[in-house]
Amino acid sequence: MDAKHIRNFSIIAHIDHGKSTIADRLIELTGTLSEREMESQILDSMDLERERGITIKAQTVRLNYRGKDGEIYELNLIDTPGHVDFNYEVSRSLAACEGALLIVDAAQGVEAQTLANVYLALEHDLEIIPVINKIDLPSADPDRVKQEIEDVIGLDASDAVLCSAKTGIGIENILDQIVAKIPAPADKNDKPLKAIIFDSYFDAYKGAIAHIRIFEGCIKPGMKLKMMSTGKTFDVTDIGCFVPTPYAVDSLESGQVGFIAGSLKNVRDVRVGDTVTAAANPTDKPLSGYRGVTPMVYCGLYTVDSADYNNLKDALEKLQLNDAALVFEPETSIALGFGFRCGFLGLLHMDVIQERLEREYNLKLITTAPSVIYHIYKTNGEMITVSNPTDLPETTEIEHMEEPFVKATIIVPNDYVGAVMEISQDKRGKFISMDYIDSRVMLTYHIPLNEIIYDYFDKLKSMTRGYASLDYELAGYQQSKLVKLDILLNGEMVDALSTIVHIDRAQIRGRQLAEKLKEIIPRQMFEIPVQAAIGNKIIARETVRAMRKDVLSKCYGGDISRKRKLLEKQKEGKKRMKSVGSVEVPQEAFMAILKVD
Ligand code: GTP
């Protein structure tokens, strides 16, 4: 395909504004899939994505479209997720494109992540085509939204496409604007190969598969390629594109998007962001790659059955190939044994990884409460970073501590400004600014990340009846008075239950946590004291009373099937239990800190 006829684009939007549905319509209209093959939200291929109705992984698909000039164009669509935790995916996809469709909901208008995503697209110098979706809704107000796009984002919206992914209105217009406005990639076929890996995954039959965008040169099967960061060479066996299922092609040329597979058996050989070149005739300089990702939230991951440790290690390695934002390293807990400390971009990311590990790799996991990364300045002049409360040095060794703050941008209707201010202050937030957007307000706050990961967003949503949208980015470290809150079960400290909290909240958190754990920990044969402590000082105590009867005592009489059922049920309950010393502790206990307040 002549590069003049190629268009590479992403779709960006705030969550739920309709990216995946628009992608469906584009696929449908270009006849990429027959009606029979078409399922709704075809690109959300993971079960988890379908169940939750969100896009987690970016996907690519090649569409062929006959433009108004009668020529056939190859449109490479890269669908991206909208949730703030997956911004990293968005950024990588954008680097493989020349343009982006910016979808804005005609009823809701510009939201916090619309802005965040536009900034990402502008960073990559992309041509942005504004698309106002859901114009079929009775509450749609496309003129107001056009005005918002101009006022808040500063983009010319006079030509914005008005469409409804539901009824199909305007979809053809989107395709025409893609052809007319998005620049074609430069034709550099005769240069040495230079391609960037923007995603990868592990296929049980083919090994590691890399999604690539070629900037210069071309790839044919049988070529020997080289990874520029490691110098590792490999033979290409399969090349192709996604339609959206993998489809073999004879060659991939400059400007095109597709996948390569070959003698790349080790998942670590394929690094997202790396440049691939030809071993025989390499390019002189690699592409600039991607900004490294910084995990914001850490937690411990342990298997319920310690015999599964190696399986967890293997699963994490494979998942990391598909999700470059995931980091992990081995750790040991006195309470939980051998496991991994894992870093995530946010709580949703953590939740998704945990669920993928359990579903795709058949593992039963215990996760510990999430923690941010603290900077600890010691009295001996040293600075250490701590993401596991257990690693906190003795109080006497600590000069002071710093915690990460984020700059949070919240957009809400005027009526809820008071509520947003109240919860932001309650979460130790510092007010920065307030701007009016028509009948809505954009507030910015500096808030400790630690408070955001607890329940800031849930609270924000519930206190604004779901109207608030939130986006945040790391805004540096600030000094805070923090302490370690420990939990003792049956007199023994459980390291996996320790958390770092602000000193002003420590008493109340300790009390709430002890109460919560009392509810969560099932009664056992003996009485279990649950204590919260700061240093040597016990600040709260609750007791889990001893069990009075065993489960079978309920069914005197000899109904064996009923007995079996009860035992099964008890076993079911036990699956997620971990013996900590003499106490059986269920998974929820390790997350209890997120549920207090
Ligand atoms: P994420 O993948 O989670 O980021 O969301 P998304 O932006 O891809 O949104 P998605 O396509 O999943 O659509 C969100 C919801 O809006 C779904 O319930 C769609 O059915 C609905 N929707 C999408 N487009 C339209 C439209 O044009 N009109 C109406 N009425 N509903 C729409």
TrEMBL record:
Chief localisation class: membrane
Phosphoprotein in keyword set: no
E.C. code: 3.6.5.n1
Coiled coil residues, start to end: none
GO BP terms in the entry: positive regulation of translation
Segments forming domain Tr-type G: 4-186
Residues the record lists as binding GTP: 16-21, 133-136
Annotated localization: Cell membrane
Family matches, as NCBIfam families: lepA (TIGR01393), small_GTP (TIGR00231)
Annotated function: Required for accurate and efficient protein synthesis under certain stress conditions. May act as a fidelity factor of the translation reaction, by catalyzing a one-codon backward translocation of tRNAs on improperly translocated ribosomes. Back-translocation proceeds from a post-translocation (POST) complex to a pre-translocation (PRE) complex, thus giving elongation factor G a second chance to translocate the tRNAs correctly. Binds to ribosomes in a GTP-dependent manner.
Protein name per Swiss-Prot or TrEMBL: Elongation factor 4
